[in-house]
Amino acid sequence: MYCAEFAAGRCRSCTEIEQDYSLQLQHKQQQWLSLLAPFAPEQVLAPYPSAESAFRTKAKMVVSGCSEHPVLGLLLNTGEAVDLTSCLLYPAAFAPAFALVQQFIQRARLQPYQVAERKGELKFILLSQSSSSGRFMLRFVLRSQNHLAAIRKHLPWLQQQWPELELCSVNLQPVAMAQLEGETEILLTENSYLAERLNQVPLYLTPQSFFQTNPAVAAALYQTAVDWTADLSLHSVWDLFCGVGGFGLHLASSRPGIQLTGIEISAAAIASARKAAAELALEQPDFMALDADAFALAQQQAPDLLLVNPPRRGLGSVLCNQLLKLAPEYVLYSSCNPQSLARDLTNLTADYQLVKAQLFDMFPHSQHAEVLVLLRKK
To answer: What is the pLDDT of residues 54-74, one digit of tens each?
Structure first.
């Protein structure tokens, strides 16, 4: 796929974009097979592909330039601002949304943050769209509250121009380092959730909750988890690092009466999961805002299925050893880092057989991939 910004050397985020997509997928699968080879998987499925463009429903834009001429995109080390509002990764509805945000910055006279001088206020705008409703969540990342009054004053104008804007908030990120967002979130709209729906399962996204950037592939990932476990005898499931509940809610909604425990450190994400569980009228969901590692290490009895979706670092040796001690019958492991998964499999396959494995191309034109494996106790 041709990208003018990549060709000009202004944006290198999509490192593989000049390679034919079928070759990208083939290369990722080869690397995946190489990582899996030492663990003798019973079945490795073909990779699940993505659309090549318009698949990304989350944008993280550096705001540069000035309030009269704001630039949304990225900032090179040279200080040059690169406009990415026409990026091919975003759906068509993002271009007019970006244009409205730029007009809003001009209207409210928001001063973009100047990295070198450490002056100005507006650092980033974070934009998310629900693939099911088409509605948006917009977040302004500010250095301080100095522009908060101006944003509040002009927000009704933006809402009138942009009826698809469901949720708007301000995040305060006062430190000078390259950190995307801070801890403080100030909600500016009555709505506090952006509603999403994948495979008829409701999911509720809040400003600081994690959610996949590629909902079409995420839907396939969740459905695969349901399909792989459909014939297993399961009465209890733990969903560790559950986020807003994507995996656990899919499994529980397909298996009435199953005892689901979801663990996630973010209280906002747990509130989202509970809201979705109530809408689904699930019988026995138990979502708790706890550290997943600490929860697992404190347990003495295992569920039938342990579902884990850890951050890029993986589970690590301590949690893997605890998992081996608990000895659930099955482990379903979703990972955004195949290398850390392979390290964990080195520990887990001492007592577990790798039954199924599949790659999901959540991140086309990059070397990254999401992978899913199912393990069965030997």
So the answer is: 999 999 999 999 999 999 999
* pLDDT, tens only, 192-225: 999 999 999 999 999 988 889 999 999 999 999 9
- Which residue pairs, CB below 8 angstroms and at least 24 apart, start in 339-346? 339/35, 340/310, 340/312, 340/313, 340/314, 341/35, 341/314, 341/371, 341/373, 342/35, 342/36, 343/314, 344/314, 344/315, 344/316, 344/320, 345/39, 345/373, 346/38
8 Å CB contact between 309 and 241: yes
Q: State the number of CA atoms in the 13 A half-sphere of 311 facing the CB.
A: 7
87 is catalytic: no
Give the containing element (helix H, strand E) for 335. Answer: strand 330-335
Cα–Cα–Cα angle for 86, 73, 66, rounded to 5 degrees = 115
Q: What is the pLDDT of residues 77-114, one digit of tens each?
A: 888 899 999 999 999 999 999 999 999 999 999 999 99
Which residue numbers belong to the known binding site?
212, 241, 264, 309
Query: Rounded to whole angstroms, how far apart are CA atoms 19 and 16?
Result: 6
Binding residue positions for S-adenosyl-L-methionine: 212, 241, 264, 309
Q: Quote the pTM value.
A: 0.95
Domains within the chain, CATH numbers bracketed: 4-52+214-377 (3.40.50.150), 58-189 (2.40.50.1070)
Catalytic residue among 14, 87, 320, 336: 336
Q: Decide: 221 and 213 in contact? Cβ < 8 Å.
A: no
Residue reference for tokens 């929860």: 295
